[in-house]
Amino acid sequence: MKHGLYNLAKPVLFSMDPERSHQWVMRLARWLPFLARQPQIQRPVKVFGITFPNPIGLAAGFDKNAEHLQVLSKMGFGSIEVGSVTPLPQDGNPKPRLQRLTDQEALINRMGLNNIGIDQVVRNLRNRPTNLILGASFTKNTATRFDQAIEDYRVCLERLYPVTDYLVADVSCPNTGELEASSNLEFLEALSASLKTMQRQLHIKQDRYVPLLLKLSSDWDQVILEPLTQILIRHSIDGVICGNTSHGLSGRPLFPKALALVKTMGQLLAGRIPIIGVGGISTRLDLLSMQEAGAELFQIYTALVYRGPQVVSELLGPNLTVSRHPPFVAG
């Protein structure tokens, strides 16, 4: 919705259960698409071989099932990431499972990776809008034993490869207990090796290279991150997303932790692997801080909930100046 209309509607929307409110907003935007339409500000930046029209993307979780791409593609984002998706459909955690912390512009997310499964998501992606940079986050089913998790990731990678522009292995979701064990470095080594082997095979078979990223946890410390950096470099992972929610928390309170993760990975990677910064970004200063720390792209989620569709234009407005990375320059 336009800025004024969204502010008028917020009291009604925020009086509903957050999950129900999200569904109503997306239905309304689908029925009346002009309410959500925003100009796409051009700030081209080339990262892992892809030229993004601007560096602000919509993070995974907002459109898990790739059901609202026609609407979301009109909101000015430089990219949209769907998922996280799993091989089989799953219901997620019992409701209520999403909570607003309105005074802090934050959310508590306990969704539990609810999604319609890889088959239906791929069908939805075959009807994706043109001229949209599209990523997809994927992970294992909650019921899959940890010692069989890599096969779930491989299934998703193979199915999503033909219908996406980049792919993200989510190894850090805090909403399912077993994925916390994915901070195990032996697992991350084996997963990276397996997925990169499959990526190379698909590249040759389909004559099309789709970058592979890993999504890291905002809660991982230097003990994990230092050896993980060597794994990422050794297996030529194309990029990292820093980072996931912290115990389900997203929004402004997460920003210091997300920024610290970007800084740490920026120092460890030293420009060898691109970083996408995500977590609590809500102001232009946040963008500049993330960029100064080493991020080349950025993603938002909770800021869209609290600010409405105009948030991308606000973050990338004409007066934004940037000090370090030449591709991201105000026009």
Description:
This protein is 36% helix and 16% strand. With 331 residues, it is α/β, with parallel strands linked by helices. It has a single domain, classed as Aldolase class I (TIM Barrel, Alpha-Beta Barrel), CATH 3.20.20.70. Strands 3-4-7-8-9-10-12-13 form an eight-stranded parallel β-barrel, surrounded by four helices. A three-stranded antiparallel sheet has the order 5-6-11, with no helix packed on it. Strands 1-2 form a two-stranded antiparallel sheet. A hairpin with a 4-residue loop joins strand 5 and strand 6. It starts with a helix and ends in a 16-residue tail after the last helix.
CATH topology: TIM Barrel
* Adjacency order of strands in the biggest sheet: 3-4-7-8-9-10-12-13
Q: Give the class-level CATH name.
A: Alpha Beta
The major pleated sheet works out as: 8 strands, parallel, barrel
Could you give the order of the helices and strands?
Answer: HHEEEHEEEHEHEHEHEEHEHEHH
Residue-averaged pLDDT, rounded?
Answer: 89
Q: Compute the number of helices.
A: 11
Q: What is the CATH architecture term?
A: Alpha-Beta Barrel
